[in-house]
Amino acid sequence: MSEVLVVVEHADGTVKKVTSELLTLARTLGEPSAVWIGPGYSDAAAAVLGEFGAAKVYVAEGAQYIDHPVAPRAEVLASLVSEHSPSSVLIASSADGKETAGRLAIKINSGVITDAIGISADGIATQSVFGGSTVVHSKVIKGTPIFTVRPNSTPPVPAVTSTTRVDVTVPVSEVAMKAKVTGRTVAQKDGRPDLSEAAIVVSGGRGVGAAEGFSVIEALADSLGAAVGASRAATDAGWYPHQYQVGQTGKTVSPQLYVANGISGAIQHRAGMQTSKTIVVVNKDPEAPLFELADFGVVGDLFKVVPQVTEEIKKRA
Amino acid sequence: MKIAVCVKQVPDTWAEKKLRSDDSTLDREAADGVMNELDEYAVEEALKLQEAHGGEVTIVTMGPERAGETVRKALSMGADAAIHLVDDALHGSDALATSYAIATILAGRDFDLIFFGSESTDARMSVVPAMVAERLGVAQLTFAQKVDVDGTSVKIQRTTDYGFETVEASMPAVISVVEKINEPRYPSFKGIMAAKKKPVETLSTSDAGLEGSQLGLSAAWTVVEDFAARPPKAAGTIVTDDGDGGVKLAEFLATQKFI
């Protein structure tokens, strides 16, 4: 079977969930090999990659690969592609992932498809575009196909295998070192799941009315083990930090459950959440356009409905 | 300081976007064209740097003739000059071809900084700035929420999933911006009048020295097999809160096995 390279997303040495999803998807295309770039590879990481079927893990360990944004990662991948001729390369659709894919495409003169939500065995990718209004099937016709895949697109299914570590050393070029990371500022961790990967997202918009109003949104999120999101109206007003913005100019999420509170449903917002599997809308305005997308909607004051549902969930827990 | 700002005309954010049935490309005639929203922030940041450090701001775009409206808007915000690549041969160009065309125009013009919006509202790939940096062999400073210039070095705050990184480089550099960076100005009446007299260099692909074999739909590295409108979603259950809206919502979540 042909080899499929899967780039591992990791933070603080922990493999992110999207990587298990990508390995699961890669098994339908060929034999997955994981690619770990940066410091922090461990037995625990190897165990996760093996659990989801990575027979080989290429490890390019070293700070030089992450101390310069994106460019060194593309160089490592280009080297692996030329040495091993994989049938395709899968990368998570994060900001870094998409840029890595773009630079790799130029280096290996290959086509790239971003934000796939599925890939068939014959390499045809499914994308949901224009705020989810259109489904497109497309394929790469030149070179080694490169796909970036959205988190939450493939349910991860284990297929335990033993994993062989293959160390790779790719010298980083001078050009790739021209931009240098000189500091990292971690926003206060809220202890909730990562917004782009979360199975459930609870979000608030203009109807929340003030920064303090987000406490009811957070309480509901915590009762469900969910991530918190916000509409642009809420982040522009400074009620909630920018990195939690869901929408056209923020993050695109595709959770199992999306609970929108006090969000009217501008195209700006829909584009970031329309592919969520189940959508719940709470809004006091019965004309709010987001009700069109709702599987379940409550017309009412979110400051009455949200605390009540939170209490109910706690009772049932 | 010589600054370029690459802008794109896109269908109005509020318009329904669709693909053409004949060649599966975006139907650009079906809606009004506007400057891609994030590109306005890129123009604004370039103008602010010019105000602080001097120099010249040049707008660069590729697209059909009507993309000239977007060029005029950027000029009326205050940019000094523009380059517009317009040629039927560009129709259907994908990200690889677009980055090739833009990088070719920019190469040899000695820009110190090259600005982009971090994403277009139509294609939403977010790859062209990184691809242009790759092709030009210059530093990539993307997803900037803050830009500081000091002599010949430039420092940005790059937004990440966990917060932000500080990234530094010597010029030249490619910078893409997120909307947190500033508040774009509206063109003034004076600006709109002045824009009419500003120079716009219109280039064909051969003027720009581009190889036709690398451009357009026929050269694309990817092909659309088919597309379809997403089937309309079945109408959901909408209840009005009579004091038990939260309870009903909890019941729904229970039947869906979320709780």
Written overview of the protein:
- The complex is a heterodimer of chains A (317) and B (259).
- Chain A is α/β, with parallel strands linked by helices and 317 residues long.
- Chain A is 26% helix and 27% strand.
- Chain A has 2 domains: 175 residues, HUPs (Rossmann fold); 117 residues, TPP-binding domain (Rossmann fold, 3-Layer(aba) Sandwich), CATH 3.40.50.1220.
- Chain A contains 8 helices and 17 strands.
- In chain A, strands 9-8-7-10-6-1-4-5-11 form a 9-stranded mixed sheet, sandwiched between helices. A 5-stranded parallel sheet of chain A has the order 14-13-15-16-17. In chain A, strands 2-3 form a two-stranded antiparallel sheet.
- In chain A, helix 5 links the parallel strand 13 and strand 14.
- In chain A, helix 3 packs across helix 4 and helix 5 runs parallel beside helix 8.
- Helices cover 25% and strands 30% of the residues of chain B.
- In chain B, strands 9-8-7-10-6-1-4-5-11 form a 9-stranded mixed sheet, sandwiched between helices. Chain B has a two-stranded antiparallel ribbon with strand order 2-3.
- The longest helix of chain B has 17 residues.
- Chain B is globular.
- Chain B starts with a strand and ends with a helix.
- The chains are: A alpha/beta (317), B alpha/beta (259).
- At the A-B interface, helix 4, strand 7, strand 9, strand 12 and helix 7 of A face helix 3, helix 4, strand 7, strand 8 and strand 9 of B.
Give the % helix of chain B.
Answer: 25-40%
Protein chain pair with the most extensive contact, residues per chain: A-B, 93 and 86 residues
User: First CA to last CA of chain B: what distance?
Assistant: 58 Å
Cα Rg of chain B: 22 Å
The description of the largest β-sheet of chain B is: 9 strands, mixed
Strand order, largest beta sheet of chain B: 9-8-7-10-6-1-4-5-11
Structural class of chain A: alpha/beta
User: If helices are DSSP runs of H or I spanning 4 or more residues, what is the number of helices of chain A?
Assistant: 8
Strand content of chain A: 25-35%
Nearest-integer average pLDDT of chain B: 94
| Major sheet description of chain A | 9 strands, mixed
> What is the CATH level 1 assignment of chain B?
Alpha Beta
Uncertain segments of chain A are none
Order of helices and strands of chain B: EEEHEHEHEHEEEEHEEEH
Shape of chain B: globular
Q: What number of structural domains do the residues of chain A give? A: 2
Q: Do you know the CATH architecture of the largest domain in chain A?
A: 3-Layer(aba) Sandwich
As a whole number of angstroms, the C-alpha radius of gyration of chain A is 21 Å
Q: What fraction strand of chain B? A: 25-35%
| Total count of domains of chain B | 1
